[in-house]
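I would love for you to help me understand the pair of lines that follows before we discuss the fold together.
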Amino acid sequence: MNRPEALELLHDYIKNPRMISHCLASEAVLKALAKKLGRDEDKWALAGLLHDLDVELVNDDPKIHGLKTAEILESKGVDAEVIDAIKMHNEMATGLDRTTEFQHALCCGETITGMITATTLVYPDKKLASVKPKSITKRMKSAAFAASVSREKIKECELIGIPLAEFAALSLEAMREISDDLGL
C-alpha cells in the first residue's frame, strides 16, 4: 500500500482531526526511527500512519483496539510485519508482550507524540519550533502532566537502543518537519 492509498484509508476510518494529526505525527516519528536504525522507512511510516485506524470503529476499546485494524489491513494485502506491529502497539488486545524492534518502535514512537504535543501546547506560542527536547524529558517526570501518556511505553525506546533524551530529540525533530500539517 502506498502513502496516498494509506491516507485515503485513514480518512475513510478516522474523522477526528486530532486523531488524524496524531497518526501523521506517528508516521513522521516512525520514519525517523527507521532511518536511524537502518530499517525500511516506508514500512515503518505506514505502521505509524495506520496504527489507530480502528480507534473510532471500536470506540477506543483497549480489549480490541488494533485487532480490527489488522483485519482491515489484511484484506488490503498490507505487509504482515506492519500488521503485527500495529496489533502489538496495544498489548491489552493481544495479551502478549512486545518482543520485536518494530513492535517496540511503534509503541514508543506513537506514544511520545502525545507527550510532545502536550508539551507544545503549554508554550505561549504553541509551536513545536519553541520546544526543547529537555522540556519533554523534564515533563515526563511529572506524573500529573499529560497523565494519560504512558511513560513506560515511551521508555521502550531504550529497548531498541535509543536513550530517552536522544529519542525525544529525534521525535521532536520529526514532528517539526511536518509542523504545518499538525497545526503546531
